[in-house]
Design brief:
The chain is of the alpha+beta class. It contains twelve helices and twelve strands. A hairpin with a 2-residue loop joins strand 11 and strand 12.
């Protein structure tokens, strides 16, 4: 899983032999790495030791890092990871009782933001902000999260937390309206909604967002039509039951933004078999190459992540269009019949 992969990479950076080009460096925490290799500390204890050192302000770490690592290794002989964490907290409290030594470099090193999506498309947001980010955010809250009484004087029923949530939504809309965001996958920042014509007409059923989450069709229609502001880019693309869309005729070499958006609505993401890259992490590919007479049309285009876009020919794969839908022909060593493959819609 991504979280476990991230933990393993971080552990290697802390306790493994690091490489930088042709140079090889030792572990960031050599004493802990040696104890880990010898089996005298567990991976969980090693992680606690490294976390404790990395929570130190820069100047304190420079003066005491080796000493603290040694002391924590001594504690690890008798303390489990939970108790070892408490020991690390006591060390930090002793060296910086008021937290006044937390400098700019410390906050820069520990800045973080994570958006944890749930199956229904909602999310939990958590962040560790630098002083600059916190000041900017609170200034925006001052402007956008104030109570908004109704015209008749009725008090705003929203809680302070709900007002801050709504302020975040408004901030994002304002940024999109200003069109200051960089392009992604060749298009400006755009909320993409996929739904069929019947769902759009009746409001029944579901739409799928560009990141693969389902929302009610009625909600999707509101996002797209409820005065979301003309300057905010939202595209609702209607697909037939066979996922066909009208092609955009073109004679230009590069796909237009509207063509890319249409392909995103049809393909959801990278269409190469076994790849799960999302649409905004892809590039537009000519199924029949431009230099071989292929037109820059939606029917002759598909989405590929950068890795597969660069390597599919070397791997022996070929792209083709069947009934206006992109398919992939595997190499003979994989399938002697070379039967065209299209990822199931549930994976797109």
């Amino acid at each position: 899983a991504p979280a476990e992969a991230s933990r393993r990479v971080k552990a290697y950076e802390r306790f493994g032999q690091r490489c930088s080009g042709s140079m090889t460096a030792g572990p960031t925490y050599p004493a802990t790495a040696a104890a880990l290799a010898a089996g005298s500390v567990s991976p969980a204890q090693a992680r606690v030791i490294a976390d404790t050192v990395e929570r130190l302000p820069e100047q304190v770490a420079y003066d005491h890092e080796d000493q603290i690592e040694t002391e924590m290794l001594g504690y690890a002989a008798t303390l489990d990871p939970r108790e070892l964490t408490k020991a690390g907290i006591r060390i930090l409290a002793h060296l910086d009782p008021d937290g006044v030594l937390k400098d700019e470099a410390y906050h820069q090193r520990h800045r973080d933001a994570a958006l944890h999506r749930r199956p229904d498309g909602s999310a939990h947001l958590e962040a560790e902000l630098t002083p600059e980010a916190a000041e900017l955010l609170e200034t925006c809250f001052d402007a956008l999260a104030k109570p908004a009484p109704a015209a008749d004087g009725t008090h705003d029923p929203r809680t302070p937390g709900q007002r801050r949530h709504d302020a975040l939504v408004q901030m994002v809309k304002l940024v999109m309206q200003a069109q200051l965001l960089p392009t992604t996958a060749g298009v400006t920042a755009t909320v993409i909604l996929h739904l069929d014509a019947e769902a759009f007409a009746t409001g029944d059923g579901f739409a799928t967002t560009g990141h693969g989450y389902q929302v009610r069709a009625e909600t999707a229609k509101r996002w797209a039509t409820d005065n979301y502001t003309a300057e905010t880019d939202i595209i609702a693309v209607l697909l037939s039951k066979t996922k066909r869309i009208d092609a955009y005729s073109s004679v230009q070499r590069c796909f237009t933004e509207q063509q890319r958006l249409a392909m995103m609505a049809r393909d959801f993401g990278c269409t190469f078999p076994f790849c799960d890259s999302a649409a905004l992490h892809t590039e537009a590919h000519h199924i029949t190459e431009w230099q071989h007479g292929g037109k820059t049309t939606v029917d002759n285009g598909t989405l590929l992540c950068r890795a597969n876009h660069s390597d599919f020919e070397q791997m022996g794969w070929q792209s083709t269009s069947i009934n206006g839908l992109p398919h992939w022909i595997p190499p003979k060593w994989m399938d002697p019949e070379q039967t065209p493959i299209r990822k199931p819609d549930t994976e797109l």
